[in-house]
């Protein structure tokens, strides 16, 4: 009888903790409302597409080290994905156009490091004469690749 009571109490506590960690219905609605706003947002066609770049640390331990940044922009969503040496993240972003800049703010971490939530903006994409540049706090001072006047060059595919 005592064992049954102890086991029941433990199961109840575990269920309570699990329920506390789940987002409440209201929180889920808030996130989905942000997604709805994102879906309704229309960006200039010049921003729609996939952007890629590589940031090099040079050789570390005799091997080339660095990381890839891919940003995919559509009218439905904006996803930034960083993968490589000591980095990995996938973030859902929201955008605001300002002249020749697309300011990308963090909306939700989808996977990996959650540092993007502390960066406002997480990325700034700049268009100049058909070329694109990126600025972000994800890039640290150890990167061998050096920025140009407008930022780091990023290739639109």
Produce the secondary structure layout:
Elements: H1 2-21, H2 25-40, E1 49-60, E2 63-73, E3 78-84, E4 87-98, E5 101-112, E6 123-128, E7 131-136, E8 152-156
Antiparallel strand pairs: 1-2, 1-8, 2-3, 3-4, 4-5, 5-6, 6-7, 7-8
Question: Could you please describe the fold and organization of this structure?
Answer:
There is one protein chain. The protein has 157 residues and is of the alpha+beta class. The chain folds into 2 domains: 2-39; 42-156, Lipocalin, CATH 2.40.128. Helix content is 23%, strand content 45%. It contains 2 helices and 8 strands; from the N terminus they run ααββββββββ. The chain has helices at residues 2-21, 25-40, and strands spanning 49-60, 63-73, 78-84, 87-98, 101-112, 123-128, 131-136, 152-156. It has an 8-stranded antiparallel β-barrel. Strand 4 and strand 5 form a beta hairpin. The longest helix is centred in the N-terminal third of the chain and has 20 residues, at 2-21. It is globular and about 45 Å long. 18% of the residues are buried. The model is unreliable at 16-39 (pLDDT under 50).
Instruction: Kindly give the count of domains.
Output: 2
CATH class of the largest domain: Mainly Beta
Q: Topology as H/E string?
A: HHEEEEEEEE
* Rough outline: globular
Q: Which descriptors apply to this entry?
A:
23% helix; Lipocalin; alpha+beta; eight-stranded antiparallel β-barrel; 157 residues
Short description:
The chain is α+β, with helices and mostly antiparallel strands. It has 2 domains: 38 residues; 115 residues, Lipocalin (Beta Barrel), CATH 2.40.128. The chain is 23% helix and 45% strand.
């Amino acid at each position: 009888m005592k064992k049954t009571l102890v086991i029941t109490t433990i199961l109840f506590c575990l269920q309570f903790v699990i329920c506390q960690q789940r987002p409440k219905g209201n929180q889920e609605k808030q996130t989905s409302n942000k997604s709805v706003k994102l879906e309704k947002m229309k960006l200039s066609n010049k921003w729609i597409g996939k952007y890629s770049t590589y940031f090099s640390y040079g050789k570390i331990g005799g091997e080339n080290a660095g990381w890839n940044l891919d940003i995919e922009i559509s009218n439905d969503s904006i996803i930034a994905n960083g993968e490589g040496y000591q980095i990995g993240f996938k973030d859902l972003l929201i955008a605001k156009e300002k002249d020749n800049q697309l300011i990308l703010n963090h909306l939700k971490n989808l996977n990996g490091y959650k540092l993007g939530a502390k960066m406002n903006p997480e990325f700034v994409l700049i268009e100049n004469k058909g070329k694109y540049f990126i600025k972000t706090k994800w890039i640290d001072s150890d990167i061998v690749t050096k920025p140009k006047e407008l930022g780091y060059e990023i290739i639109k595919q």
